[in-house]
From TrEMBL:
Subunit structure: Heterotetramer of two alpha and two beta subunits.
Record-linked Pfam families: ATP-grasp_2, Ligase_CoA
PROSITE patterns (UniProt xref): ATP_GRASP, SUCCINYL_COA_LIG_3
Keyword annotations of the record: ATP-binding, Ligase, Magnesium, Metal-binding, Nucleotide-binding, Tricarboxylic acid cycle
Species assigned in the record: Thioclava atlantica
Xref: NCBIfam families: PRK00696.1, sucCoAbeta
Keyword presence, Magnesium: yes
Protein name: Succinate--CoA ligase [ADP-forming] subunit beta
Superkingdom of origin organism: Bacteria
Residues involved in Mg(2+) binding: 209, 223
Amino acid sequence: MNIHEYQAKQLLKSYGAPVSDGRVVLKAEEAKTAAGELDGPLWVVKAQIHAGGRGKGHFKEPEAGEKGGVRLAKSVEEAETLAKQMLGKTLVTHQTGPAGKQVNRIYIEDGSDIERELYLALLVDRVTSRISIVASTEGGMDIEEVAASTPEKILSFSIDPATGYMPFHGRRVAFSLGLEGPQVKQMVALLGNLYRAFTEKDMEMLEINPLIVMTDGNLKVLDAKLGFDGNALYRHSDIQALRDETEEDPKELEASKYDLNYIALDGEIGCMVNGAGLAMATMDIIKLYGAEPANFLDVGGGATKEKVTEAFKIITSDKNVKGILVNIFGGIMRCDIIAEGVIAAVKEVGLEVPLVVRLEGTNVEKGKEIIANSGLNVIAADNLSDGAEKIVKAVKG
Ligand code: ADP
Ligand code: MG
């Protein structure tokens, strides 16, 4: 789960990280008062969406101005004007994709005098199974470009879980970034606080881009992006409360209500599968036969008729879906029960695209019989590759 920049900054501030003073506003009328509560004389008006690259992004609506989602204001009136221009508009960045994201919240914060922009992140490194600190002197808005063209400028430091974060980690990072004097101490403290926040709140990613050296020599967190492990959210009600459902894919949100593991993808073949491993294999084999999956969907081991129906509704609500492949292994579940669930779901939801069903496991003959006798236009398949071949053929001709 991701949260907004202003929420991330509040959280990191509670762990002792240096951030600017700021106010979040939902309505343009609130902007002037909010800006007035800050010091000035320079304000930064920042669109809050769950995507980076806002500064270099552009709005779809011309009246929102040319200059992207992070803008400077020299007066509280100008801050209000900028907030009015951005609220309700669609911001497109390299991370949102061409559809962009609607801006529903604006963060107004004090402007900082920037000497240097650095990059700092903590993440779970799957290769070493450790938390890594990633740092670069080339922070700011072009970090992707840095990673692509000069990867040697991105440094990585692995933290041994047995010791946890140690001050020498911080010193190493500080020296590699060319920090001096009191800045080194600040970095050692900052990284200690970030590491504590990261582990205590079960984060998957913590990215500060930029971390700035101000003209007065002090460090400050100027942008913050946090991602949390969804499987650990149950023990962080404070983080759950920060969830902004308007930022999430509506289909994924609906699926989570029914405890379905669903991820929307860009392809044309909707998949309904039980078990994450089988779901992965199904996606792979669809690709092997020359098509692309429209989603990952694991209905789980104990899929009920209700769950199957809901899964169908979610799959068919995706207008990119040109065909559906149901691939179920009846282990604990019985194939006849699943067949009944599928038939009931098709009857309730309706079916405008080809449907291939592959069943295997307990009571498979009975399951197949139920499908064959249903009178519905369902294509039966005997095994995984047969199912993939049939659905791709039905969709692509
Ligand atoms: P994004 O990464 O989504 O583009 P950032 O918050 O990193 O958004 O802002 C983009 C750039 O705007 C920063 O790299 C920095 O140069 C500038 N900026 C952001 N916030 C401030 C601020 N409070 N004061 C001065 N400059 C800022
Ligand atoms: Mg940034």
